[in-house]
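The material for today's practical consists of a large collection of protein records. There is nothing in a record beyond a sequence line and a structure line. Backbone structure tokens are a discrete shorthand for how the chain folds in space. Nothing more is needed to start thinking about how sequence determines fold. As an example, a complete record with its sequence and its structure tokens follows.
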Amino acid sequence: MKREEYISIIKAQLGAPILDIELTDEDIGRIVDIAFKELNNYIDTTYFETVTYTGPCIDVSKLKVKAVLYVTRGTLTTNNANFTNSNQLLFGTNYLITNKYSTMNGYKGTTSNLMSGYITSLLYQQIRNTIEQDLDFTFDKRSQKLYLVQQIPASNQITIVYNKILENVEEIEDEYWINYMIRLGMAYVKQTLGRIRSKYRMTAAPYELDGDTLLNEAQSELSEIREFLRSNDNLIFPID
């Protein structure tokens, strides 16, 4: 949603153009930007990106990564299937396990021999999982570098599952967060208008301004939204 749309919705909810609002569109826009900075800490939209794996250090600066949740490997290539000993295999498919492990360990021909080879492969995997890590990663947010350890058989494609750094309100895509952006922006604007309209007290006037009412509404809405966001915060930064 465009920044101008947020401004238009908030103005309409405040009664414009029938009621006069003491804030210009740009004033409201700046308040929306302030509300976005607060909401951005809670936005946990998940993004997926498949990148080419050329080494243990992957530059993800183009993705603007806030936190890497996990990584997965792509399909194994033909080159990775050409192994010479059973210790090289860990995450092979059943086809690779049956043909490679069974042959290298002397199991071939009958179904029982193939199953024995498969069981042997599971034993190798268990041992290797105990002493070595696969797809272990460390993410350097400052430099936007992802350091990844990939055991054989390796994949030349890695899918990164991550949370994104949003730079402005227009990058919010989920309707869920758009709704909370409107609510939070509205509460901030009410708070500003309430302070403007309660700055001076008019005596013997035929009408009263609703500054105090707006301030109370804003405080109540901000407290409710913040409490909900804190209690439902699912954004977890993994400890590498």
User: Anything to note?
Assistant: The chain has six helices and six strands. The first helix runs from residue 3 to 13.
